[in-house]
Amino acid sequence: MAVARRRLIPFLFLLYIVAYLDRINVGFASLQMNQALGFSATTYGFGAGVFFLSYVLFEIPSNVILARVGARVWIARIMISWGMVSSAMMFVRSANMFYALRFLLGLAEAGFFPGIIFYLTRWFPARERARTMAAFMTATLVAGVIGGPVSGALLTLNGAGGLAGWQWLFLVEGIPAIVLGIIVLRTMTERPEDALWLTALQRAALVRGLESDSGAGQDEHAGAALRDGRTWLLAIVYFTIPVTLYGIGFWLPQMLKAASGANEFVVGLLVAIPYASGAVAMIIVGRRSDRTGERRMHVLVPALVSATGLVLSTLGSGVAWSVMTLSIAMLGLASMFGPFWALATAPRSSRSSMSSGVAAAAAIALINSVGNTGGFVGPYLLGAINDATHSFTVGLFAIAAMLVAGGSLVLAVRDA
Q: Is residue 2 part of a domain?
């Protein structure tokens, strides 16, 4: 198990850093782009969030295709296409073009995250999943740590080569996805049985561990996921996590710009602090959840911590207060991911939509796609409320309330 983790997780971690950075770099671009193109907060919030509409629409079909054709080919296709669209964002000239390219980016990337989650279930048994998934999903936070300074530095290229800083940002940050997609196509190993880098004994042990998780039935129909109440309940719980993650992620640079008055590079450095706090907390809580075997309270308590940070952020001013409270919000939020996905992918009975193959892929995609409608709601809600009130306060209270509701609802999720 340890050999597989050392081999797979660092590479998947790198892929997800690039994926998440290409999603949220519009938040950094907005520091220049909104003024240059005359975008209001509502226009920007809608464009940032519209990514998730196409992402949600095509997520289940994408993951079903992945289960049939294999992760190697499909993940490569996803990465190459989204890298091309991400770089093409440099050509945005109007609100409609902004909306169209963000929609296409969501379409291109649909299936990446649930595809990787499904891929991990083919390599790691349930007892190992919270820390394994937390290690992989820490990339979300590391992308913020790395992306802040890098994006801030790219914005300083404003005017170089006849391009604005925000255009350089989109151009440069889209290229790694294309390169890594080609590497995936050449190197990704589909299953433990195919892993020539494991010894015969290691392969046999890994396969036995996975077989012990297998349900008795082999329901291979994607439609089973649509009929499973537990899957829908998990999707509703998950909805509140992207509401917060992307609500904060897409607006964090502007929040800290307003609080600090600093230039783009310094804002990038400040943005890295909440993400770094979240990365540490995600690993610690994921390991503790695996050690105790408990999942629900490891989702609920971090949700309450994150909501508290969001509320506190509205009760003070200044850059130190903003960074501290938003770091609390991010570390609580980040801690939810590993235990949540360990709960969602726990081995199921023969009657379950999560029992095998295509059905499992569809169930994971359903949870992620319904949940990721929150990725549209969060940014748009904050933008619209900010235009109406000239403050993020009401929006942050609304997001905090949703997160508390989702964390509480997880207590109703029955055992697998």
A: no
